[in-house]
Amino acid sequence: MVSQTPQKINKKIWFILAIVIVLVIILIIVRQIGIAKKPTDTDKKKAESTEQKAALTVTVVQPEQQNWKQIFTANGNVAAWQEVVIGSELSGQRLTKVNANVGDEVKRGQVLAEINSDTIRADLAAAKANYAEAQAVLNDAITNHKRIQQLKNTGAISAQESTQYQTSQATAQARLDAAKAQIESHQLRLAQTKVIAPDSGVISARSATVGSLAQTGQELFRLIRDHRLEWRAEVTTTDLYKLKQGMTARIFSPDPTQPAITGKVRMIAPVIDPQTRYGLVYVDLPTTQAVRMGMFVKGEFDLGEKSAITIPQTALLLRDGFAYVFILDNDNRVTQQKVTVGRRLGNRVEIIGLAANVKVVSSGTGFLTDGDLVHVAKAIPDTPLSKQLVTTQEH
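The structure assignment produced for this chain is given below.
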């Protein structure tokens, strides 16, 4: 064998190393190309989204921030501001006339009923006769006393006799005063035979009937003073501190054809009922036929304006007793989110805790589930049916 020289061996080694290096570079390039061609998760999702068909075509809106009035609702009774009890001050006499009935408007001093006065008139006549007799006795006593005083100065009578005549005059004067007091008493009883309205107002109740026997303190009529009513709203302890004196309140009549009645808070009760845990708020009402005393009605207190995040009512989904909205992401997929509903105004609803920069599905929420792919339409045309639905929701 012919031995190789060291130079040839070195050339062969360098040639092999060059081939190995080239192969390694080729493998690295091939690997990089393979990685570049491998689809990512995002590409897979896009591919799947492209292949998957949209579940529904919907419209989306962004929540709006609006200033809404704060309304606090309560219930309560309509009562008289002051109800006057009118009764009899005589006893043992029968009613002869009843001039007023329930619902009648009466004026101060008007005669509501009359009680039999024949016996009292007879007693008054007897008292006047006694007064005349006492007056005559007093005149005679005065004349005798004057004559005795003249004789006393001459010494014809004693001091004891003079004192007796003086005492007789004083006794006659006392009897005259008693007769006069008797007349005034019978005149007062005669005036009490007429039941008088103590103030102007409207009769709310009547128990007086002709022929019945009047008794002292017996209730004959009830009078709503000045025809003035008030609404006594029942408010919980926590809500009572939201209300202030002078606030405006709107009371709704049970008759839907009647407009709301506007009143003002006159007073807030200083105590809470320990049984019901409610406090009363007294609201003065104007004179109206829309409400009557004794009605249990609903009302609203105006607490001023407060900012609210609102969405259309159609964007709200009620399911299993909870409220949800569907939020649209950048891949046109919807995410179901549970929300808390606040106030309502027309066809819009306040949503508490919802961000203002999200996109919310406003139509077709009842047909969607969490994670659905949707197609977003620009807008829904205003058809007559859609206008009718919006009008119905506002009412």
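Interim note for the steering committee: The first strand starts at residue 56 and ends at 58. Helices lie at 6-37, 41-51, 118-154, 159-191, 237-240, 384-394.
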